Amino acid sequence: FSPTIDDVVRESPCDIAVVKQRGLDHVKSILVPVRGGPHAELAMRISRDLAKRFGAKVVVLHVVPKGVGDRAIEREQAAVDAFVRDHAGTRRASGIIREASSVRQAIIKEAANHQLVVMGASAHPTNASPDGRYLFGTLAESVASKAKPTVIVVKTKQSLGLATFEELRASEGTLAHADAFVERSRSLPIVVDRWFAENTFHAHEFADIRKLVALKERHNLSISVGLPALNEEKTIGTVIKRVKNALMDRVPLIDQIVVIDSNSEDRTVAIATDLGVPVFRHPEILPDTGSYRGKGEALWKSLHVLDGDIVAWIDTDISNIQPRFVYGLLGPLLREPKIQYVKGFYQRPIRSGNTLHAEGGGRVTELMARPLINLFFPELSGIIQPLSGEYAGRRALLERMPFFTGYAVEIGLLIDILEAGGLPAIGQVDLERRIHRNQPLPNLSQMSYVILQGAIRKLEERHRIELLTEVGRGMKLINTSKDQFNLEVREIGDEIRPPMISIPAYLARRMSLKGR
Q: What is the pTM assigned to this prediction?
């Protein structure tokens, strides 16, 4: 405003208002541009008193970037309405949202419709010059110099810093909180693109196994591989032989291989035992915790019998298994300390009769999981195979994660790990091509139903949407026979296991292992 005013503001022991006078005749409407925060609250108190004096209405303006979307606009309008309700003190007050590429221009344009503007200084004027010349912030000073009506800029005596706004951003319903949502929405595509470029790998990057062994030894890490199995006699022998021979017998990358069996009725257990691999039936692990059916249950219980600092899980129905399915997952964890969890992805051909088609696999992913993730968990939209059965992670992370007991285990882990460690903690690796047993559509329908239930539970936990507390488990299946249709109701759904670190028997075993 002027050197004299600047000096007064610097030394002021109280709240201060500076007026850019252009006359106060016939004030019928007062504009209050707000971002939120103590300066805005002071502006509202002053405008409220002036409105009573002039018999004027108060219009609170909040400017948001163009193209933020309807959901963001709704949040911002709700926050403005709450701000007006809490601070206006008059029924003749309302809040409006304007989308604009320039906040300054939007305020100046709207100011032409009012006879007085009252606004707060910038809480932390990031555009201030190095000499601190713009004590009110460049936005406030620009509006004061350009707007047609009289402009009053106010500044509290309260010392404001980054912590003040961080508190507001964390408070649900505030303007700062709504703005933070907009910022995340606008920056998310850039964040995901950057993550995709930095945290996506190819298995061939880690083909030098001896380098991986050196990294493992340098960091004093141990590695365990868990093989969940249920009636996999056709493939489990090949899976064990190729992984064990290449990564355990020839080169000591893996310290432990264990089969976690879910009560197979074929020769799965016998084959694994003959090949010298320990087999644990998951209902017999931690018997005091009970037992549920499902792959997620097997993975959760496997944490108790797998000893490694890094744990990798590989499905045992893969007919084209290669060592890269394991070392590809381990490579990013050994080379990149920031990465805590790695998902595999691959081309997924589909078999029709005796013909193997190059495309068409991953039906649940493409038709259900990917749209679901893009809608409600967009941070994970760069994950190529969110439901893949090949993944690895650091024990320190995995033991703190809850596990769904069945088909929802993959989506649940991804969401919880995102919450715990952020997107940079997750990596993904191209394992090239994976051939496995394809399931019929009715089975995939039930799988999708369980995964959707799991995602809904996670949505409720994150308070992103409000849904029924009790998610229905009854799924109506349509059966056909001789051109007749009938309905079968089946109870389908996962239980949730608590973080393994909360289980006393697990903690006792970990302590005993450390004592060796």
A: 0.67
